[in-house]
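input
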Amino acid sequence: MNMVDIITKKRDGGELTPEEIRFFIDNYVKDRIPDYQASALLMAIYFRGLSRAETFALTEAMEFSGDVEDLSDLPGVKVDKHSTGGVGDKTTLVVAPVAAAAGVTVAKMSGRGLGFTGGTADKLEAIPGFRTRLEPAEFHRQLEELGLAVITQTGSITPADKKIYALRDVTGTVESPGLIASSIMSKKLAAGSDGIVLDVKCGSGALLKDLAEAENMADLMIDIGRKAGRKMVAVISDMSQPLGRAVGNALEVEEAVQVLKGGGPEDLRQLCLELAGEMIRIGGRAESFEEGKETARQVLSDGRALEKFRQMVRCQGGDDRIVEEPERMGSSRYSRDVLAGRTGFIAETDTREIGRASQHLGAGRLRKEDEIDFTAGIRMHVRIGNFVKEGDVLATLYGADSRRLEEAEIIMEAAIRISAEPTAPPKLIQKIIQ
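output
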């Protein structure tokens, strides 16, 4: 086998064998295949797609491209959670400590920002000193002692996915169902959890544009997980507008803490309760989803979830004073308001473009080697269906470069459409697949 033949076969619509997929993964991890050939194969996959058999084979090859965690000696059901990616999606920062405070062991492996979507690891690294990289023994020890750890994969866990993930981000090959499913599930399976709750996003700010695509993705990932013996559930949620009000790393950490304190935006709180309720149920701490959701409410209201978040931050080297003093995460040099150009109702928010504006401000990566500006981002002041008057503030932009703020303002003005007629807000929870 050689890469040119494999690229050509996929380019022409052929189905790769498990052996060909393992050849690519094994040799790419060992740096025997250059990025330009890997990029060519990813682009061929983007256009031709992956069959279910190819997706299973790719997931397995990436899962076993490095070490696989064994958490079997820890008591109870270990639960992980993952989102397919969205704008303003900071749910992990809330649901992980909520579920852990309810007695579930949460072994969470998170990724970095990909394209216009944010990444949990980048958000956590906005907290001064927070370490998202733990060695396997350290990860295991923290789970044993605290029942909660949120990390990125180390070089020894799914190294193939780590390389491919970064390459997809800068080669325009993010929105491929097979690549999305295999990337997510290889990390989930390698992390060693017994159960996985998936938050599958659909809408303009998601990788999946409509409910049908989201259902297909959820079904595919559930199938992969169950074949590997995992408990699985998927919540399909709307991403036709940013989740919550904050978009950008430090801004989103601050907003997540507000929810942990019992406040925060209602949509964010609602989705967090749904996801945490499912985590608590499959983690064996509730007989039903309704009981799990009620338990989630209790640990939020009595402060146990906030305390679990503090403990996680301290355990992973972070400054937990950010809970009361978010300014310790820093602030942007410049800010700029985006104003309504007319009176009317918010009819549409092109959430992908809002994510792109945030990325442009420095909250995401435009190139593989870019550094994140943790303080950059956007604070939304309106939701779909809101009435606004000409000159009202629609959003506030934050960044370190005044020229970029001006350019992001232009993107935002085009992304938010105002209509003379009222528009009904979208339904947040689209479907739950168990």
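quick obs: The first strand starts at residue 78 and ends at 83.
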